[in-house]
Design brief:
single chain, mainly alpha, Arc Repressor Mutant, subunit A, 2 domains, 8 helices, transcription, transcription regulation, sigma factor, RNA polymerase subunit sigma-24, DNA binding
């Protein structure tokens, strides 16, 4: 869906065609869930926080500025909902991100299994990183957001985003090596 199609969809939702909102939820639900899990919420809390994200998204949809990145706006809401939740509650360590959507990229079943194992290893070790590193890495590599979108979501400067990516990757690689696990060249 391109930005014009998104804008048309949003206008139709705002104009009381509320059933269409499910298309936006379907588009973002797995990635929102992944960001929330990556920030430290357990499975049940991540489901609740994702639902809260979409409730807020629906409520504030009329305030969405056409032409700006919808994905950045959605992730900003998810990050803020999760930060509010984690401030009120002790963070729960990330173990394995479950339920993330797997897309068929034309890879063999063996490659798919290896890719899943790699993701599990990386997510398991993300808990060792400071929150700002973990968040920037998740937004960049899990959700494939641009630097500009990450800046909008986090409020960091370009230098802070680049620094967090660089230091986060370096610390994650070191953590994986210290645990005797592979340093995945694809990621680094």
């Amino acid at each position: 869906m391109d930005s014009q199609q998104e804008a048309d969809l949003i206008r139709r939702i705002i104009d009381h065609d509320k059933q269409l909102f499910s298309a936006l939820v379907d588009r973002y639900k797995h990635k929102v869930y992944g960001v929330i899990r990556g920030m430290g919420a357990d499975h049940q809390d991540a489901q609740d926080l994702a639902q809260e994200t979409f409730i807020r998204m629906y409520r504030f949809l009329p305030r969405y500025q056409e032409g700006s990145s919808l994905s950045a706006w959605v992730y900003t809401i998810a990050v803020n909902v999760t930060k509010d939740f984690l401030r009120k509650r002790r963070p729960i360590p990330v173990d394995v991100v479950e339920g993330m959507e797997e897309t068929d990229k034309g890879i063999t079943p063996e490659q798919s299994v290896l890719e899943k194992e790699m993701k599990r290893d990386i997510y398991r070790h993300l808990k060792c990183l400071p929150e700002n590193y973990r968040l920037v890495l998740l937004l960049k590599y899990t959700n494939e957001l641009s630097y500009e979108e990450i800046i909008k979501i986090t409020g960091f400067s370009m230098g802070q985003v680049r620094n967090a990516l660089h230091r986060g990757k370096r610390r994650l690689k070191k953590e994986l090596e210290n645990k005797g696990e592979l340093a995945y060249e694809i990621f680094f």
